[in-house]
Amino acid sequence: MRASSYIPESELIQVEGNNIDFTGGRLEGPAAPKDPEERRSGFFVMFETAIEATARAEGSPSQEVYLEGNYLTDKARYIGGITDEGMLALLTTWAGFRELVHSIGVSVKTGTGSEGGTVSFLMQNWGRSSKYETGTQLRVPCPGDGTEVLLKLEEVMWSGDDVSPGKFAFEFGREGELATASIIFYLNDGYTAPEATMEAPVDFGSLEYRAMIAKSLLHSGNNYRLRTAIDKAIKGEDVTIAYIGGSITQGAGAKPTHTGCYAYQSYLQFKELFGKDGGENIHYVKAGVGGTPSELGVIRYERDILREGAVTPDIVVVEFAVNDEGDETKGNCFESLCLKILSDPARPAVILLFSVFVNDWNLQERLAPVGRHYNLPMVSIKDAVTGQFRLSKTEGNVISKRQFFYDIYHPANDGHRVMADCLGYLFSETCRSLRDEEDITTAKRPVLGNDYANIRLLDRKSLTGLSDIGVEAGGFGATDTDLQRVELDADPFGTPEFPHNWLHTAAYGEDSFRMTLTSSILILVYKDSGSPEFGRADIFVDGSLVLTADPHVNSWTHCNPVILYQNEQSQQHVIEIRMAKEDKDKCFTILGFGYTV
Question: Is the pTM of this model over 0.85?
Answer without folding.
Answer: yes
